[in-house]
Amino acid sequence: MLTVDMENKENGSLDVKNSLENGRPLDPADWAVTDVVNYFRTAGFEEQASAFQEQEIDGKSLLLMTRNDVLTGLSLKLGPALKIYEYHVKPLQTQHLKNNSL
């Protein structure tokens, strides 16, 4: 089993290396709901991770989320919602697009 090398940064974002963690697929589009939930728990958003479970957000859904979806659709507090979108959802979307545009 491969591991993820995650480094907490001062802004609450994580530097995620390209590998697997707990069997979670490398491409977020292949993540199940539990993979998404575990990703956000690992990233330090334990309380907010349950919103992804309740809304049944899998990897494909996560990659389709807009800023507005995260800020209002998940009923999260504004501060954590902004960090989740800017430092996690958006970078995952960008990386997915880069990896799949070859």
UniProtKB/TrEMBL annotation:
Pfam families: SAM_1 (PF00536). Residues 1-21 are annotated as: Disordered. CDD domains: SAM_Atherin-like. One of its GO terms (molecular function) is chromatin binding. The gene is SAMD13. This is Sterile alpha motif domain containing 13. One of its GO terms (biological process) is negative regulation of DNA-templated transcription. GO terms for cellular component: nucleus. Residues 1-12 have a biased composition (Basic and acidic residues). InterPro entries: PcG_chromatin_remod_factors (IPR050548), SAM (IPR001660), SAM/pointed_sf (IPR013761). Transmembrane segments: none annotated. Residues 31-79 form the SAM domain.
